[in-house]
Amino acid sequence: MVGARCAEDALLAQTGGTEKSVSCLFGLASGLLPMLQDARNWLPVGETQRFLNAQMHLAIMFESQQAFDNIDAIMSVPGIHAVTLGPSDLAQELGVFGTPDQGKVIDEYRTRLIEAARQHGKDVSMLVGSIEQGEQWIRAGAKIICYSSEVEILRRGIMEAAKRLHAVR
Questions:
Q1: d(CA 67, CA 90)
Q2: 3-class DSSP state for residue 46?
Q3: Burial of 100 (0-12, 13-18, 19+ CB in 10 A)
């Protein structure tokens, strides 16, 4: 799979005559085109681009109430392979960021996303902060698990190692 992460770019879906914007993760291989042309004995640009396009995996990120209000129309857009949500941005938009209700509310939206994805034949990618969350969302139907921070993974590993070493007598 060839791809680049860009949560700031938007996929515009035509829904009910108005454009709705959804942040997305996208794959664009234009920077790899010259390398692939060289590696494949200078294939014509069109043929190389068709090959690269066939390798794309498009995942869109739902980060607003507006996106969830149009979830069926957005998921009906051809070419979308997977969906995910931006938990922090969504929590801010919903007014629950940093509140005791944040986890519960975002989990409700995650469940809505999984249910809609199942109906539309899309995979679900879930951003998680722990192995336990990963297990929870795999059981619920997510097929792609992304850690929210590799730094947190390293921190937890270092803390566990330090704890075990300090316990040695």
A1: 10
A2: helix
A3: exposed
Residue 133 CA to residue 127 CA, distance in Å, equals 9
CA angle 69, 71, 74 (to 5 degrees): 120
Q: Tens of pLDDT along the chain (169 residues)?
A: 333 333 223 333 333 333 333 333 333 344 444 544 455 466 677 887 888 878 888 999 999 999 999 999 999 999 999 999 999 999 999 999 999 999 999 999 999 999 999 999 999 999 998 889 999 999 999 999 988 777 878 888 899 999 999 999 9
| CA 168 to mean position of chain CA atoms | 41
- The total of other beta-carbon atoms located within 10 Å of residue 71's CB is 21
Closest CA to 24 of 9, 42, 43, 41: 9
Q: Which amino acid is at 142?
A: A
Quote the DSSP letter at residue 105.
Answer: H
Taking the CA atoms of residue 26, residue 29, residue 32 and residue 36 in that order, the dihedral angle to the nearest 10 degrees is: 130
